[in-house]
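ok so dumb question maybe but i'm new to this and my supervisor (M.) told me to 'just get the structure for Phosphoesterase' and walked off. so i did the thing. is this what she meant?? sequence i used:
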Amino acid sequence: MKITVISDTHMPRKAKTLPTRVIKSIERTDALIHAGDFTSPNLLYYLEALTHVEAVAGNNDGYEIILHLGTKKIVEMNGYRIGIIHGEGIHSTTIQRVKQAFANDRVDIVIFGHSHQAYNKWEDGVLYFNPGSPTDKRRSPKYSYGEITLGDKIKAEIFYF
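this is what came out, is it supposed to look like this??
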């Protein structure tokens, strides 16, 4: 199973459409995970029409998105447990908040956003994965998104453009 992973799209303020390369990734994978900050429900509904979507709301998402998605979830895909959270907060770093949020949960992968900075690291048997942003790079040198393959092993890759 192959999954496209995005976060922090901030549409339509930061972009009117998703980059073509991200749409092509979504079309060739089995599902999409979005780690929050859609900022418009229109993007969510567009993505749900394209593919199976698992997502959470971010700190810039309105009530409609929060009500539809929630802010933290654990999903099972191809036998793996995947935690999804945006990662906002006021204390500590984004990665510290994300680890704390799933400290009492059994997960294989934690997907998060918020920082707009790609992150792809294994720690204590858990993959922590932030795809960065395909539309709002902020302090990152490039835009980015990710793909995760769930087979006998977990393979995760970040694509920069």
